[in-house]
Amino acid sequence: MDRVLAGRARVRAALLWLTVTAALTGLGTLTAPAVQALAQRPGPTFVDALVQACAVAALVAGVLLWLATTEVVTCVLRSGGLPSRRAAGPVRLALLAACGAGVLATAAPAHAGDGGAPVGAGTPLRAEALAGLPLPDRATASRPREVVATAVVVRPGDSLWTIAARRLGPTASPADVASYWLRVRALNAAALGPDPDLIQPGQTLRLPPA
User: Fold this and answer.
1) How far is CA 182 from CA 28, 157, 189, 194, in A?
2) Would you say 195 and 147 are in contact if contact means Cβ atoms under 8 Å apart?
């Protein structure tokens, strides 16, 4: 049974290597003109240069995949198709090291701060770094503003209506005056007594914000 499984593993490994090799050959055929053009004379336009650079990147990725596949298939064939506890080969170690270096390079990008010191993870963000950047609308006050009522001294002939109208000004409508009059009466209920229309000259009343 072990020999049958080992034989199947070797066949699958060989087929895998042939498939990756054929794919790399096709990729090389497709990207060869762009790679050759980039090596001789990039461009002439930005789009052309970008296509050429992408072709080179695709070809490099294909070569790395082929190297990793070759290393794995070689391990399978050397072990007779049976599971092996051998340490990772040099190709896989090189690929893992390259991937690790790329992750570390992009995980915490450094930005130049004062005096050339890098500003990255764990460094407090200075206010100057946000200068000119659009910020979302948010409440800036730590607590609501306190509303202070205004005091007024009752004149001879005054009523709550006339005091409200004088407070709001000549542009106030009768509905505004009536609404403000009710607010004045509610704010001074303790001082006015049972008859809110009975106010005395010299009496001090509190007026809510207009």
Assistant:
1) 87, 19, 10, 14
2) no
Query: Which two structure tokens, joined as six digits, stand for 106?
Result: 């992009």
Helix (H, G, I), strand (E, B), or coil: what is residue 91? helix
Asked if 124 contacts 113 with a C-beta cutoff of 8 angstroms, the reply is no
Give me 210's structure tokens.
């207009």
Token pair listed for 207: 């007026």
Q: What is the pLDDT of residue 121?
A: 46
Q: What is the pTM of this model?
A: 0.38
Residue 104, number of CB atoms within 10 A of its CB: 9
Q: Are 181 and 199 in contact (CB under 8 A)?
A: no
Residues 173-205 have pLDDT tens digits of 999 999 998 999 999 888 887 777 788 888 898
Up-side HSE of residue 49: CA atoms within 13 Å toward CB? 6
pLDDT in tens, 135-155: 555 555 555 554 556 888 889
Whole-number pLDDT of residue 110: 41
Task: List the helix and strand counts (H, then E) for the chain.
Answer: 6, 4
**Which amino acid type is present at position 32?**
A
69-101: per-residue pLDDT in tens? 888 778 777 776 555 555 556 666 676 666 565
Using CA atoms, how far apart are residues 19 and 25, in angstroms rounded to an integer? 10
